Structure formats: C-alpha cells, structure tokens
Amino acid sequence: MSRILFCFGLGYSALTLARRLAGQGWEIRGTTRGPEKAAALAAEGWRVFVFDRMHPLPPEALVGVTHALTSIAPDEAGDPVLDLHARDLAALPGLAWIGYLGTTAVYGDRQGGWVDEDTPIEPTLARADRRARAEAAWRESGLPVHIFRLAGIYGPGRNAFVNLKEGTARRIVKPGQVFSRIHVEDIATVLAASMARPRPGAIYNVCDDEPAPPQDVVAYAAALAGTDPPPEQPYETAELSPMARTFYRDNRRVRNDRIKRELGVTLAYPTYREGLRALLPVDGP
C-alpha cells in the first residue's frame, strides 16, 4: 500500500522528516507560502502547493493521503489548516495519523520546575495561548491527531556555531534560567516512531534530557570551535528586542519520558553536547 505524507508547512522540521521518509519510498506532498520555494521543493520530485488563508488547497491535493503533519502556527483567527481543510481531512478514508507540531511554551512559567505531558498548561504569552487553543481545536476535531510539544530546535544551519560565525551569538545570563532544546533529527525520529505506533489524542514532549542555561551552550560551542566566547551580559541590562526578552519570561524544565517509554525512542543527541559535537564539521567557524 502506498504511503503518502502531506506536510502543511514544509519548514525546517517537516523537511527533515519528509526527506527521511522519501528515502524510504514514501510519496511526499506539502505546502509553502511562496511559489519560489514551492518550485525548489518540486525539484525533489514532490507535489508542493502554495497555501495560506487566501490560498486553500485544490481538491486533488489531499487525495490518497495516509499521514499528515502540520507545522503552521495559528493566527488570531485560529488554525488555518483546520479552518480550511478539516472536512477534507476527515473525508480521507486512509488517513491513519496526523501530527501537530506545537511548543512547550504552552506550559508557561514554572520558575524552573519540571513539567510533563500531564501538567496542566498555563500559557503566559499571547503566541503560546494561541498554540494552546489550536491544540484544543485539533484534539476536538475528531481527526487522528497527535500533539508534539517541541522545545527549542537546533541542527544543521541553525545552531550556536552559526551564531558564532555570524557574530550574533550572545551569552545573556539570567540566574536560574534554563531552556530545553531538541535536535531536528531527533524530532524526525520521534515523529516516525509515532507513525509506527499511532495513538490518536496523544501528547508528547519532544526535548532532550538536559535543560541548560543558554550561555553554557554558547560557551561550549566556542570551546569546540577553538574561539573565544562572547562576554556574559546580565539579562537586566542586556539590549534585547521586546520579542527576544519574552523568551526569558518563562522558566521550566521539560520531561521527555513518554517518548522513550511509549514510542521506544532513543535520542541520538540526548544533550546539547552530543548535538554540537556532531555539527562541528559542518557548521563550525
């Protein structure tokens, strides 16, 4: 039986999964927001459509789809995929799995405390509140959805080495502040494991084993690259945009036991150290 993955939003994480599955014989379809990127991805042999609220999918786009992944963020009106295509997805006779890529930001601020998938969500940011509402809408849709709450994503082309090379790396110090993170290849591993063991309605935290202060990650990358790290800057006096400052508003540690226990996942990069060491030949200064 043919296996067809449709990705609403062929971005960084979705592309990593799509390319892995394409190598295993899956048919890949998906969306982007612009015709230039659509054309570039179509060159990989995929059917790619331009999609946003003003450009819904044509009727033939979803025919035969067996698995769907959405990484498109909700807007103030709601989730555009659900709003435009919930009925089309529900009408697919062979649809076995939908993955929704969300964020651990829905847990809000826990003052450094631990959270897991059973912790009630308490978003403190407007964008996290929209995510929480979108999660609820998907779970109430009757579709075979699985919620993946992603920590901070890094990997090839998006990591501390790149920031050091470009001169944008900073060591902002807010005492007690930690962030959880996840390598993009480990995201793909979790998603593939869920596809193999679907449990509609499930929620999974997707993060590595060690929440860590962001300044430590930059210092470790600089040491691996043999370069001096940028100086530490106190959070209180650092020049940060209002958006950047919001990332430091919440402080929590996220548990990942469920992906290991229920999906049998073994992380290739259980901490940022393994992840950065693997990236150094590609992305080092």
How far is it from the N-terminal to the C-terminal residue, by CA?
46 Å
What is the CATH C level class of one domain, in words? Answer: Alpha Beta
If strands are numbered along the chain, what order do they take across the biggest sheet? 3-2-1-4-5-7-11
Describe the sheet with the most strands: 7 strands, parallel
In total, the number of strands is 13
CATH evolutionary superfamily of one domain: NAD(P)-binding Rossmann-like Domain
Computed structural class: alpha/beta
CATH topology of one domain: Rossmann fold
Number of helices: 10
Strand residue percentage: 15-25%
Q: What is the average of the pLDDT values?
A: 95
Give helix % range: 25-40%
Named CATH architecture of one domain: 3-Layer(aba) Sandwich
**Structural Rg:** 19 Å
* Low-confidence region ranges: none
* H/E element sequence: EHEHEEHEEHEEHEEHEHEHEHH
Give the overall silhouette. Answer: globular
